[in-house]
Write a structure and sequence with these properties.
Elements lengths: L2 E13 L10 E17 L8 E5 L4 E4 L8 H13 L7 E7 L9 H16 L6 H16 L5 H8 L3 E3 L6 E2 L6 E7 L6 H14 L1 H24 L7 H13 L4 H12 L4 E5 L6 E6 L4 H10 L4 E7 L7
Parallel strand pairs: 3-5
Antiparallel strand pairs: 1-2, 2-5, 2-6, 3-4, 6-7, 8-10, 8-11, 9-10
Helix pairs in contact: 1-2, 1-3, 2-3, 3-4, 5-6, 6-7, 8-9
The chain binds (3R)-3-hydroxy-3-methyl-5-(phosphonooxy)pentanoic acid.
The site of (3R)-3-hydroxy-3-methyl-5-(phosphonooxy)pentanoic acid (PMV) has 15 residues, from helix 4 and helix 5.
Length: about 325
């Protein structure tokens, strides 16, 4: 059966999560060790225009007509058709798979949609550019996350380190020295929409305190951007740990995330923080490459359910 497919990476947020929702900058990085894949199979024998979506990760096996109009999948499909001036998809089966754990801050929802949008463009004979993919994925992310900043769909659409600020042009970062991150999953999944709304409520009750924390996080993101462009992040890891402490003050860390941060520092990482929405999900630790396996081992010995070691290359270098 003829088929086409497209993939998309995962991501981590290096710094600035939550503050980015209030206009502060944040930095996100693609993670190539996890990914989503959408394959589209032409089904000429079945009813004209019949489209079935199969996504075993979320137990979905439905005809597109039976899926509500306002789900991320149906919104993405409608917007791709609109972008390409296509009124109807040819009969097909759309298979969506992802190795990205749900609710772990690794960008599973955005990644799945980016792979779907890319695959649909190819299927319809018009590969979509990154800007269009990103625009459509952002609309789908709004269904999943309520009021997302757009950082996840941006880093995954461009597959490059990105310095992101709402309503500002996207800045792809030129990193001077590559660095190594250990990503460790706390094993507790958490809904970003919940932690984001928790911060919103606490900020409403206490605007001065929260705006001060948000502005300090923004300063750290600007400083990390400067370090990435001019120096070594590994020698400036304490900036990540400072960011973690501010996220704790925002109320999005947990005792387990705090413990995993401490474990990484005890194992020789130069800095560590929760990454993403918090309330569970992952921490990241920056460390010398030769120490990464030790940090990962210690994290697993102290409760991480899985670890990923990833290298972010300098601009122009391959992983
Ligand atoms: O999708 P997550 O869990 O990596 O979190 C995204 C980052 C937040 O700043 C918490 C939310 C957002 O919309 O930017």
């Amino acid at each position: 059966m003829p088929s086409i497919y497209a993939t998309a990476t995962g991501k981590v947020i290096l710094c600035g999560e939550h503050a980015v929702v209030y206009g502060a900058p944040a930095i996100a990085l693609p993670v190539f060790q996890v990914s989503s894949k959408t394959s589209i199979f032409v089904k000429p024998a079945i009813v004209q225009g019949a489209v079935t979506i199969l996504a075993p990760n979320i137990q979905l096996n439905k005809k597109l007509d039976e899926i509500e109009a306002a789900t991320p999948y149906s919104v993405a499909i409608r917007l791709v058709k609109e972008a390409l001036g296509v009124s109807r998809l040819p009969s097909c089966e759309i298979h969506i798979h992802s190795s990205i754990p749900l609710g772990a801050g690794l960008g599973s929802s955005a990644s799945v949609i980016v792979s779907l949008v890319r695959a649909l463009g190819l299927f319809l004979g018009h590969p979509l550019d990154n800007e269009t993919v990103n625009r459509i994925a952002f609309e789908a992310e709004k269904i999943t996350h309520g009021k997302p900043s757009g950082i996840d769909n941006t880093v995954i659409s461009y597959e490059k380190p990105v310095f992101f600020q709402s309503n500002q042009p996207i800045q792809l970062l030129q990193i001077l020295h590559g660095f190594t991150l250990v990503i460790a999953d706390s094993g507790t999944s958490s809904l970003t929409v919940k932690t984001v709304s928790g911060v919103r409520k606490r900020r409403q009750a206490n605007p001065d305190v929260y705006d001060n924390i948000i502005s300090n996080i923004g300063e750290i993101s600007r400083e990390i951007k400067r370090v990435l462009q001019t120096a070594e992040l590994t020698s400036n890891g304490s900036l990540l740990t400072m960011n973690h402490n501010l996220l704790t003050q925002l109320g999005v860390s947990t005792p387990k995330l705090d413990a995993l941060v401490k474990t990484s520092l005890d194992a020789g990482a130069s800095g560590a923080k929760l990454s993403g929405g918090g309330g569970g999900g992952n921490i990241i630790a920056v460390t010398e490459p030769e120490n990464a396996a030790k940090v990962a081992r210690e994290l697993e010995a102290h409760g991480a359910v899985r670890t990923i070691i990833t290298t972010i290359p300098a601009a122009g270098e391959q992983v």
